[in-house]
User: What shape does this take?
Amino acid sequence: MGAGQGIIVRLSDKFIIFHKDMQMLSGILDLPWWGYVVTTLVFTHITIVSVTIYLHRHSAHRALDLSPIVSHFFRFWLWLTTGMVTKEWTAIHRKHHAKVETADDPHSPIVEGINKVMWEGSELYRAESKNLETLDKYGHGTPDDWLERNLYSRFSWQGVAVMLILDMLLFGPIGITMWAVQMLWIPFFAAGVINGIGHYWGYRNFACEDASTNIVPFGILIGGEELHNNHHAYGSSAKFSAKWYEFDIGWMYIRMLQALKLAQVRRVAPKLTMDTSKLAPDLVTLQAVITHRYAVLTSYARSLKTTYRTELAALRERSTGALDGESFRRLKQWLHSDAKPLGDGERAKIESALAGSKVLHTIYAMRQELASVWERSTESREQLLTRLQDWCRRAEASGIPPLAAFSKDLRKFA
Assistant: This one.
């Protein structure tokens, strides 16, 4: 019995020593397992908010102004959690908008492929960040103070090392895992999901000239960046949501900062209004059509959706083999797109198909003419108005009821 008690005592002593060693390995904060998960999600969410509000809406698009306190906090947090430099991110994103879906786009899945952008988006970012021409041309107006020159830009990667040390001091060994999640969050969700899926899959509110999409209507996980098509339609808007059922959490935070007088919104997407008393397009109508051009083209496609389907089905039934199955599948896309990007082969196929349907030929030609109203920058407002009025007259005399109805609605834009 005594020997047994001695063994228990010795084992207890060893357990106490072992327990003390474990305490030494733990961090300053002792949290339950779910506490570490919540803390990690909060940290990554702050990073997402920093990207969407500071880098994207404030720095790249100047859609809002931020107070120095908020701006410096975001810069410091991004230095700790991403190592991204404001000028580099801003320049690359501006170039993306200027060269979207072309060979010069830094990260287009249409050009590079969805797998490349989805899984190697951060590599594409780093490669473009070394392009001095991009930084010089698109990086204007970004911070160039002492902190930027001597800390954030000069020691960009050291920030994430500081974050690793802080995570380990605060949370112990589990802090390494928390840090790893923080480091992977932006490269995957921002560089991969937004730049990849946001130009590949989803729904579209606006018929932009690019392939941008809204991934989901609830912009929470990525700070509102999920509403990517809305953003490309109105790039300088501080608010990304456009429909009543869409939610942009980034906009919610901006409104909170604005209420605290820590932010000032400069621009939001204009709202389209209708004047039912109008009998003919005027200069106000012209301005509304130009401002809401992507919404106009979307409305055009929706108004004529049934007509498109009926005519395409009839065209396929009487097809003589001029179009193969793949061409028919792409014909619908071609009918809703601008003619300029089409190659010679695609142009020939669509012209061949349209020759077999007078209705399709009319609504396709009318779409291209409507788009040309805001593309003719060399013409005066009066000339553009004459062109728009003539378009409405011919649309209403086309004998295609949905086209005539769309024109009558277009006249009421205000």
Remarks:
- Residues 1-9, 15-24 have pLDDT under 50 and may be disordered.
- Residues 283-410 form one domain.
- The CA atoms of residues 25 and 172 lie 6 Å apart.
